[in-house]
Design brief:
- This protein has 7 helices and 6 strands.
- The protein is α/β, with parallel strands linked by helices and about 220 residues long.
- It has a single domain, classed as Rossmann fold.
- The protein has a 6-stranded mixed sheet with strand order 3-2-4-1-5-6, sandwiched between helices.
- Helix 3 runs parallel beside helix 4 and helix 6 crosses helix 7.
- It is globular, with a radius of gyration of 16 Å.
């Protein structure tokens, strides 16, 4: 029986549009979406509206929650916050472990969040590139196994999107470049695909696709 996994990067974030926001923000490493980011998230939601997605898992950072919420509203689904999909906790980007919005505050703002969900994989600061890829890859494998054969959407960040895709489909899922904002992967699982010559069950149908967006950014930033 086939299983489909969608993996999306969050939409544009406020500090990419207004760098001064970072200087006075209470939670500097947990920015919201920008105005055009909300538009991107809605375009992604509209693109996925007719797909048979059963579960939405999102990184617990605000920008991923807001992106996932746009999709959850369209699909009428709850959101499960999974720390294993978190941002790359890179000390070169962050001079301390990032403070995120508390769960109760997020639930109040976005009632589709299922507060009873227990994250399966932890994310620990600081991380190397290899560690974030291993962590997000482990998360993807854990969740697709636990919820098989139902279809899943992961909403994550540049590094964790890449890690999740590679955790399922191996090196074939490596784009060789940075993942664009609101880009989308689609992987289809079918046990019949697995052979000695093709050791993975996952077929990649979309790989960093942005065709659902009106505009894409000119300079691609990873985090």
């Amino acid at each position: 029986m086939s299983q489909i996994v969608w993996i999306a990067r969050h939409a544009n974030r406020l500090d990419f549009v207004n760098p001064d926001w970072f200087q006075t923000a209470k939670r500097r490493y947990d920015p919201p979406l920008s105005e055009d980011g909300f538009e991107q998230a809605q375009q992604l939601a509209n693109h996925l509206k007719s797909e048979k997605i059963h579960h939405i898992f999102a990184s617990p950072f605000l920008r991923t929650v807001q992106t996932a919420n746009a999709i959850a509203e369209v699909l009428n689904l709850p959101i499960y916050l999974e720390t294993g999909l978190s941002e790359w906790l890179n000390p070169d980007w962050m001079d301390e472990e990032p403070e995120r919005h508390p769960l109760d505050e997020l639930v109040e703002l976005y009632p589709r969040i299922d507060a009873s969900y227990t994250p399966r994989i932890a994310a620990k600061y600081p991380e190397t590139r290899e560690q974030v890829r291993a962590r997000s890859g482990q998360t993807a494998r854990c969740l697709v196994t636990e919820f098989a054969p139902e279809n899943i959407l992961f909403v994550a960040h540049g590094a964790s999107v890449q890690g999740a895709a590679m955790g399922l489909a191996g090196e074939a899922a490596d784009t060789g470049e940075k993942i664009r904002l609101c880009a989308l992967f689609k992987l289809v699982r079918n046990s019949c695909l697995k052979t000695p010559a093709k050791p993975t069950e996952w077929e990649i149908e979309l790989k960093g696709d942005t065709s659902h967006l009106d505009r894409v950014e000119e300079v691609v930033r990873l985090h």
